[in-house]
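Lab notebook, design round three. We kept the backbone fixed and only want residue identities now. Task for the bench partner: fill in a sequence for the structure below.
Input structure tokens:
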């Protein structure tokens, strides 16, 4: 008696997950269709502009550590 309700609950959850994934894919679907038709979504959207990003320089490397005779003997 419990099996039919469990199956129904499982199929309902599976259907809701499928709907949620399909809803998330709607913006990407337009881009994919435009690319397949040979149109660029970036060329049509004038509100998108490049953003300047400041990149910090790499930190200076540490000077090489040269082992002294006392340290060699300790090893």
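Proposed sequence:
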């Amino acid at each position: 008696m419990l099996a039919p309700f469990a199956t129904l609950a499982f199929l309902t959850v599976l259907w809701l997950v499928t709907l949620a994934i399909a809803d998330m894919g709607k913006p990407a679907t337009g881009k994919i269709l435009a690319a397949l038709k040979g149109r660029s979504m970036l060329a049509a959207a004038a509100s998108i502009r490049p953003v300047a990003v400041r990149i910090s320089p790499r930190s200076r490397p540490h000077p090489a550590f040269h082992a002294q005779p006392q340290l060699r003997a300790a090893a």
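Keep this in mind before ordering anything: The CA atoms of residues 67 and 73 lie 10 Å apart.
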